[in-house]
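Incident log, entry 3
Record: Cystathionine beta-synthase (318 residues)
Problem: checksum mismatch between cached and fresh output.
Input:
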Amino acid sequence: MIACMIRNSGHTIADAIGNTPLVRLDRLARDWNFNLWAKLEAYNPGGSAKDRTARAMATASSLNPGATVVESSSGNLGIALSREAVLGDWTFHCVVDPRANRTTVAHMKALGTVVHQITEPDPETGDWLVARRARVAQLLEQMPEAVCLDQYSNTAAFVAHDKGTMTEIVAQLGHAPDHLLVAVSTTGTIGGCLHYVASNNVATQVTAVDAEGSVLFDGHPGTRHLPGFGAGMVPELSKQLSPHRVIRIKDRASVDAARTLVRTEAILPGASGGAVIAAVEKLRPSIAEGSDVVVIVHDDGTRYMDTMYNDDWVEKNL
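Fresh output:
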């Protein structure tokens, strides 16, 4: 069963953002006593939920043609902002680390983005995100005319997922879900969903799904191999949020759950999509019979074929 909304025609590819499908996972949840749904953000034109964030940040900014933007990304936001740069006629510099998938980097370059790939983590913390942000700061010093939209503090992301993602879920389902599980990194997606829940006074329990080794929501730092969720530093956005619960998932469990999803539902998720499925498994004993449970699958796994869907890589790294 698929709940969807009709897409309207638009003037640019950006008009295709949103109205992504909500799919019921009856095969995966065959023996469960509740209804499981997946919001498939890979159906955005750039292939991820970050399309919503990038569009909202660009729209809220005062960028004009000829502007220069510098940002850090683990991949998906980089692709989304690369598209915005083409449509807005500005230049985009994206800082990535070695965990960014080769196809993602190639996609950004194809769109004309200048990619800066760091080779070492932050020497004090050992974290790649800290190192990426330090490189962004260096580039901003070297290019005084450049600006950073800063996905880690930009509240436009909250608006994108309040008025977009969560509003769509409620409309497609016909009512607010009993549970919503969202993988977290910058925390823009979960922040927007929490804002919708609070402002509309609905009873949805919102669970943050974090990676083991992430420092979000009082987590403890550790080694993480999968990009796309978790963080090695506390973003400003997360300081404004209080999810109803936090579930932390190990890298290997995320991979295993992702592979289970594709083998049962023919839905190929990225790492964070595997994590939310693994989190539902953990939450199962406390979910009331007949509940509607929604997971947000932020992207698909086509960019992860060399990593989490490669047996040799998994055995070597995880």
